[in-house]
Amino acid sequence: MTETETRNHHDDKQQNGGAVAEPSVEDVFDDTYKMKEGPKPPRMLVWRNIILMTLLHLGALYGLILLPSASVSTVAWTAVCYLISALGVTAGAHRLWSHRSYKASFPLRVFLALGNSMAFQNDIYEWARDHRVHHKYSETDADPHNATRGFFFAHVGWLMVRKHPDVVEKGRKLELSDLKADKVVMFQRRHYKLSVVILCFIVPMFVPWYFWGESLAMAYFVPGLLRYAVMLNATWLVNSAAHLYGNRPYDKSINPRENPFVAFSAIGEGFHNYHHTFPFDYATSEFGCKLNITTAFIDLMCFMGLATDPKSVSKEVIIARIKRTGEGSNKSG
């Protein structure tokens, strides 16, 4: 990215109601970072993660085979678990805790933290830290899932190898006092392993077995492993497919793309060129609730008084940005 392009990436001001809202420094691409020249550090495999990912996907495949025999109630419960765990990532770890794009009441933060544990994608503190690093050093050696290293690496390979030293270094230097000050975040972090065992595996399995007599095997492999694996891959597609495939109507100088399939599977997180251009817009899209269940959920929480101060970008700013840095696509989204 050139200096001019980077400045364009920074200098838009967002409209929140009638007030101008400046971006958080942790959301903004850092153009002062320079990748080190010379050979890259050796790639060190994390065999524990490789083995666990393999076993999970084998179990999910078996769950897929079992799925046609599952009861309607079990399929419905699987969908409910998927939605709760997805919201724990999208409305919680991502839009609330990583980008601070709206404010959430204590009950809502507790619900989102429970959903995040059901999703089992690292605790909120670690997830938000890595995501802020991703935005600040996107597509560089300091990006945890740098998409320039290929689809597989951006999708899941980054979890199968040790982090690049620059990822670790930059993560340690981030300002994370807001996360440390949130009692819900730190409570979940202290009790993360237990919460994952209970919420990601036991609860999804126990409910269909206890309440409508589903077999333990069906309950474990369908709402348990199959739901978990599909949720993981939907999130990973934001890092891989949404950085490689789609159009760039807002900023053609960055890799993230608008990808409707990813938006559908990740309940609203596929409008990625928009999101990296305006990272603290609570909707992550200019189209409101279109293919965006997460935005609809946050809007509902605001209506109920459980969430406040959603940050958004004015239509005038969006149009000006499209004209200045967009690739000239026929339509955005």
Automatic annotation (TrEMBL):
Pfam families: FA_desaturase. The chain crosses the membrane at residues 45-68, 74-93, 192-212, 218-238. GO terms for molecular function: iron ion binding; palmitoyl-CoA 9-desaturase activity; stearoyl-CoA 9-desaturase activity. Keywords: Endoplasmic reticulum, Fatty acid biosynthesis, Fatty acid metabolism, Iron, Lipid biosynthesis, Lipid metabolism, Membrane, Metal-binding, Oxidoreductase, Transmembrane, Transmembrane helix. Residues 78-279 form the Fatty acid desaturase domain. Belongs to the fatty acid desaturase type 1 family. GO terms for cellular component: endoplasmic reticulum membrane. PROSITE patterns: FATTY_ACID_DESATUR_1 (PS00476). Residues 1-22 are annotated as: Disordered. The histidine box domains are involved in binding the catalytic metal ions. It catalyses: octadecanoyl-CoA + 2 Fe(II)-[cytochrome b5] + O2 + 2 H(+) = (9Z)-octadecenoyl-CoA + 2 Fe(III)-[cytochrome b5] + 2 H2O. GO terms for biological process: monounsaturated fatty acid biosynthetic process; response to fatty acid; unsaturated fatty acid biosynthetic process. InterPro entries: Acyl-CoA_DS, FA_desaturase_dom, FADS-1_CS. Residues 1-14 have a biased composition (Basic and acidic residues). Its cofactor is Fe(2+). It is found in: Endoplasmic reticulum membrane. This is stearoyl-CoA 9-desaturase.
